[in-house]
Write a structure and sequence with these properties.
single chain, about 450 residues, alpha+beta, Butyryl-Coa Dehydrogenase, subunit A, domain 1, Butyryl-CoA Dehydrogenase, subunit A, domain 2, Butyryl-CoA Dehydrogenase, subunit A, domain 3, 3 domains, seven-stranded mixed beta sheet, two-stranded antiparallel sheet, 11 strands, globular, Acyl-CoA_DH_C
């Protein structure tokens, strides 16, 4: 893997003939000098993420409407050091557990859901080699990512046909098309995945993003998560050395059994599902924060309540009741998410040094813990982000306020994979004691 080349970062830029607009990283250049070192402890990391969230929240409605590729916003994440929270200290990382990383995703999502999503996907993809690569590949990849403060995208979407991989001597070659590719446009490295021709074996690899064989279509114009750059991408003749095939023997050109055929190699899936749930939680918390500020300042009491007429909105029974109910459900969902995050951290810390020690049963327990969080955060998040309008009033639907973005963002991502299947999965677990077979979504 080689360093990425410089890319156009502002104004109307072009990628392989297609015009697109992007934000200018210079907007946040002051923070490159403000944050000169990584936080020292958990409280410091959370405070840093909260500060980033508050910065992004100031103009999130405007940026959301403009829908420009978020090079500046990703630069802010880099300045803050948030991309490095999981990485080993020997290469400049924070060496923190996943449980803390999930809290940072939640905090950033509170202020800007798209950037919380990008942070979450980056943290997942940046650990790919740790899960499916050899120890040497994991170490080499971490050094590359952390020493350059790279942002990682991924063109993996499993619902599309897999990328086709051809063997070409000392290299293998990717070709294909993916309908979704979160963060790719603003990434330094991209994770590709496909199936080697003539086999059923999958290969993961990191490649530099800025090269002629990666053609972003710039077609992400959806109702929510507009700055997540989740549009489609065409992959043409991307050549990768066999030594960079994660978990493969470059000499034999075949998977290494003790790396890719054990339960540990499937941990990327529950880990990213919990990324999703913390994204949803952050969005719900952000909606409550924004709604409460509006209610306290602008919501009026109902004037036609007869003898029960109130003088302020905060005296209204139904407003107090709704806020209390929303708060309770978000707090409960947060506690459930924190419990699952602690389990993810425990499994990684216990089994990374001896990957074969993770059993299928233990992996199944983790999957069901994460599925429970997914169900609860989906239900709670949708209810809260739609329900805040009940406690803010008709004027709160104005575009300038942008209170609708929370529901739009949450509704967009909760369609990633049907939560009904998570409910069924949990039902089989509870009634029959059946853990799900590891898949791209469980």
């Amino acid at each position: 893997m080689t360093n990425t080349s410089e890319v156009p970062l502002n104004g109307a830029s072009a990628t392989h003939g297609r015009e697109f607009e992007s934000t200018d990283p210079a907007v946040y250049s002051e923070y490159s000098k403000k944050w000169t070192e990584l936080p020292k402890d958990e409280d410091g990391w959370v405070a840093r993420a909260k500060e980033v969230s508050e910065i992004l929240a100031k103009d999130v409605v405007k940026r959301n409407a403009e829908n420009k590729a978020p090079f500046a916003e990703v630069a802010l994440l880099k300045h803050a050091g948030l991309l490095k929270v999981l990485g080993p200290k020997k290469y400049g990382g924070g060496e923190q557990p996943w449980s803390l990383a999930y809290r940072l995703i939640r905090e950033v999502s509170n202020g800007d859901s798209s950037l919380g999503m990008l942070l979450g996907y980056h943290l997942l993809w940046s650990t790919t080699a740790n899960v499916v690569g050899t120890p040497e590949q994991a170490d080499r990849t971490q050094e590359l990512i952390l020493s350059n403060n790279y942002f990682i995208g991924g063109a993996v979407n499993p619902r599309d046909e897999d990328h086709k991989i051809a063997n070409d001597g000392d290299h293998f070659v990717f070709n294909g098309f993916k309908r979704f590719n979160t963060g790719g446009v603003v990434s330094d490295l991209t994770v590709l995945e496909g199936v080697l021709e003539g086999t059923e074996h999958h290969i993961f690899a990191f490649v530099k993003t800025q090269q002629s064989g990666i053609e972003f279509q710039h077609d992400w114009h959806n109702i929510g998560l507009r700055l997540s750059e989740s549009g489609s991408v065409k992959i043409t003749n991307i050549r990768v050395p066999w030594v960079d095939a994660l978990g493969w023997s470059p000499e034999k050109k075949e998977p290494i059994p003790d790396i890719l055929t054990i339960p540990f190699a499937t941990l990327l899936l529950p880990a990213i599902q919990l990324v999703f749930s913390n994204l949803y939680l952050g969005i719900a918390q952000g909606a409550l924060t924004a709604a409460a500020a509006y209610t306290l300042k602008s919501t009026r009491p109902w004037p036609y309540a007869g003898n029960d007429r109130k003088t302020t909105a905060t005296d209204e029974f139904y407003i107090l009741e709704r806020y209390g109910n929303f708060y309770a459900h978000v707090a409960a969902a947060s506690a459930l998410a924190d419990r699952a995050g602690a389990l993810v951290s425990s499994i990684y810390s216990t089994h990374t040094s001896d990957r074969k020690s993770l059993t299928a049963a233990r992996r199944g327990e983790l999957a069901e813990e994460v599925a429970s969080v997914k169900v609860v955060t989906t239900d709670t998040g949708l209810r809260v982000t739609a329900g805040v309008f009940e406690v803010t009033g008709a004027s709160a639907t104005g575009e300038r306020l942008g209170l609708d973005r929370f529901w739009r963002d949450l509704r967009t991502h909760t369609l990633h994979d049907p939560v009904a299947y998570k409910n069924r999965e949990l039902g089989r677990w509870r009634l029959l004691g059946e853990a799900p077979e590891p898949s791209w979504y469980s």
